[in-house]
Amino acid sequence: MSQPPGKKGPLVMIHAFKPPLEKDKDMVTRSWDKLKSAILKIFNEEAGELSFEELYRTGYNMVLHKHGDRLYQHVEDLLKERSQELCAKVETETDVTFLDGLKREWQDHKRSLRMVRDILMYMDRTFVKQNTKKPVYDMGVHLFCQHCVRAPGVKSRLITLLLSKIEEERNGNKVDRDLVKNSTQMLMEMGRDVFHDDFEVLFLKSSEEFYRIESENFINANGCPEYLQKVERRLQEEQDRVGACLSVDYNAGEGGIKQVVEHELIGRHMQTLIEKEGSGLVWLLENRKVDDLRRMFDLFSRIHQPPSPGQLSGLDLIENRMAEHVMVKGREIVGSGTDSDGQEAKVDHLKYVTDLLDLKDQYDSLIKDAFKSEKSFINKLHKTFECFINQNPRSPEYISLAMDNHLRGGKSQRTGAGQSEEQVEGMLEKALQMFRFLSEKDVFERYYKQHLAKRLLSDRSQSSDTEQKVIQMLKSECGYQFTAKLEGMFKDINTSKTVQEQYRNHLAQAGSADASTEGSVDLVAKVLTTGYWPTQQTVQCNMPQEIDRVCNVFKRFYLAQHNGRQLTWQVNMGNAEVTAKYDKPYRINMPTYQMVVLLLFADPSSSALKFTDIEEATKIPAPELKRVMQSLACAQYRLLTKDPKSKDVSPTDKFTYNSSFTHKMIKFKVSSIATSKETSEEVQASRNKINEDRNPQIDAAVVRVMKTRRVMEHNLLIAEVTKQLQNRFVPEPLVIKRRLEGLIDREFLQRQKGNMKVYEYLA
């Protein structure tokens, strides 16, 4: 078409109208007859002579001419008829050939459906999608399922034979696994719901019944280890069976065969297995059956949810029963601190702590090797130790005493032999594990300070480096404030060495007035800072004149260099080395009190003295003097004799110089009879002092909390103060309440008007 002159714009093409194609009224019938004949040949395996291109064009034309619905319906009817024919054929099979025959017909049917699908591909792409119908292949599978597999004469036989084959294999018989797998795969290909409704429900039910009967019979006839081994084998067999006999798409987990088998073999019997007499969990723990314990842990860990409401999961059962057993063992070790008569129980502190460490090592090892270092098991063990260790109020003292023994280089409780520095450090690290379980760490600190003081003052520490390492471990555990005084004690010892050297130089100076004062007495003084050391108010005993004279010389020297300071002699903390002549000269190291008493007998006129005479002459307190006399007259080195002879000392006893004393060693040490553990009276006195020391700490914690919060309810304040102090001790709520009343009286706090349970901070 030409464009008029002077006009610009796009050209428009106009085509002649095409008349509609004439419809062939017989085309649909001819086309379907052609397709039906071809499909039947495919079913009969005669497809070799067919032209698939021509057949595709035939199906294409039917859909193109709006006959897709008729074509789809014809195909559906034909496939339904074919499925019914195959059903009749399968029903004639015997039980021996049934599964194989069904498998064969299913495979042939799928192959035929794929060829039919290729012919009718255009219908699948257009008509089926537009009308949301099943594609040809899926429709064929569905019809085969409904009219063959689910037919009354096929379905029941199929499921019965499959379950029978599986049970035969569970009983140890050999079956054709591939045949079973092909059958279950067929059901899965027909749909997950078909597999579940027709097979899985009955399969799980029969499996549940099978394993319930088997497990009950086996657990009644065998011990726990044998049963666990049986279960382990069964679970592995069932896992292999699922892979070999069931569909590759089958999920054996949640709600599947795995859960059913685990519930029947493990879940229903967990409590019975744990409590089984002579082979249960306690027996396994006592006999360190690591392999069996690991097997129990692995199997029970499969039971994440309790078998029934109100019960515990598998690992919780093991964890709780182990904790109960450890609690019993721990209470046997720690006791309660008193015997059946209410008197203080006699305890070997070293054995006490060693037994605790052995128990801890034993269960640490079991948790690592058998329970895979499960965090919840470790936490449960720690809580259990914390519980029973704190049931004995003297645990802090015993732990400190055990550490004291190792730091002094004492013998091993297990071997009776000496220990290397590495062994000592190892034992101390383990002892500190027990320290972590203490709720009253301030009590431990008090005893440790006392024992450290004795080691430092008597030079009995095996290694200064080891002592410092313990201090560092305590600092990392509890902070600087916990060890500040302990570190101050070491500083005093180092400073005292310098002071002693200066004192020696002072005495050595030519013309020194004090140089001639010492005579036969060599004084080594350690100057201690009052706030660091566990000093006590002690009665000053009457020192021998020559000793008193030397002490005054040192006092003048020290105060001349440190104006304004005060010196108080702590006689009860000192020791002396005395040269005494019996059958031969001996060099005897002894506490200061023992030296004071022994020097009384150096006077020929005092060869025999009564207890009361010694008390009057020395002014040593009677309880302390009794222990002194026991160490001199009733212990290993009997430098004095006592009349009457007995281990106890009474005010009427008479003591004489033991001129017949002899010993193979020239140099030896006389120790105080004072027990390493405190007496009940001393314990009570220590407890009272500790409670007094806690009061300002509680006050400080309350003030810190209230200064931050300003206003706080009573119970919340109690909880917060307890939380702040729990690293040192756990205060009683009643004690905190009393301290709150005291702070109110001192106008740090006040109760809120209108609500007496709320406190307000006063700036």
TrEMBL record:
A Pfam family: Cullin_Nedd8
Taxonomic superkingdom: Eukaryota
SUPFAM superfamilies: Cullin homology domain, Cullin repeat-like, Winged helix' DNA-binding domain
SMART domains (alphabetical): CULLIN (SM00182), Cullin_Nedd8 (SM00884)
Keyword entries, A-Z: Isopeptide bond, Ubl conjugation
Alphabetical list of PANTHER family matching this protein: CULLIN (PTHR11932)
Name of the molecule in the record: Cullin family profile domain-containing protein
